[in-house]
Every structure is written in structure tokens, then in C-alpha cells.
Amino acid sequence: MPTLRTQIEINAPRAVVWDALMRKDEWRRWNTFLFDADPALSLRQGQAVFLSVRRLEDDEFTDFEPLITLVQPYNCLRWIAKMPGFKSESAFELQDLSPTRTLYTHQQRFKGILSTVFLPFIRQDEKQGMKRMARQLKRYVEHREYRQYQREKRDRRYGL
């Protein structure tokens, strides 16, 4: 089965990277590959969500409705998107490299008779989009503005 994969090392703890990944309503602030089309829907296992993808930065959006198949906090998020003859499984995995460094992996697997038709046309653009998202996630969580947001969120939680 055809697979696309990208990885990047992020200079932030896994919990920080996970928080940014799970707050899909904030994706538009940093992510030009995947967009949240319905912020009211959370990334919960068994939940369908409405997303848009833009493979190239100047491309049109393509809407899709994946089903969240796995949420393993701080480790893995997976979803499956289907249409007749085509199935795409996306996995976002986090692994500790050290207490302050995380390996982010984004993998997509394609199945179905139509994958042999569609994939040659989208493979390169999809891979570019995945790499762009990884770089943007890295930049976002390593940036001081995001860390400041985290401090303020913690302070509000504890009434400071």
C-alpha cells in the first residue's frame, strides 16, 4: 500500500507539541496544510470531523470528513477518510527524544482501487504539504508567543 511519511525534530516537550496538535481550532494560526472547517467538533475517538486540506499554499481547499480512529494522548492521533474506491489513513505520532525534544511523524497510507488513479497526481503535492505542516508546527511550538500562551493558560487554570 502506498505510504507518504515525514518527520521533524521539535525543540519542545511532547506535551506542548500534543497540545498544539489537538487544538484544531487554532490550526489556522500556524498550519497552511490542514484547516479546521468546524471548530465545535473535537478530536475524539469515534468522532467525525470536518477538515479542509490545501496541498500547495496557493491551491484551492479540498474538504473531507475523516473519522477519528485513535486518540492516544501525547502519543498518537489517527483518522481515516474514505470515498468509494479510496481510503486514506493519517497518523500523527510523537516520540520523546529527550525531556525537551520531540520527534513528530506524520504518515499517510492509501488503499483502494482509486488510489492507483489519484496518487500519481497528488503524491508530490501531498508530501510537500505534509512537510510544510511539520515545519510550521515546529516553528509554532518553538516560538515564544506560543510558550507565552501556555504560561497564561496555566496561570488562568490556577487563578494566578
From TrEMBL:
Q: What is this protein called?
A: SRPBCC domain-containing protein
Domain of life, per UniProt, equals Bacteria
The text of the family note is: Belongs to the AHA1 family.
Signal peptide extent: none
UniProt-listed InterPro entries? ASHA1/2-like_C, START-like_dom_sf
Residue span, Activator of Hsp90 ATPase homologue 1/2-like C-terminal domain: 11-142
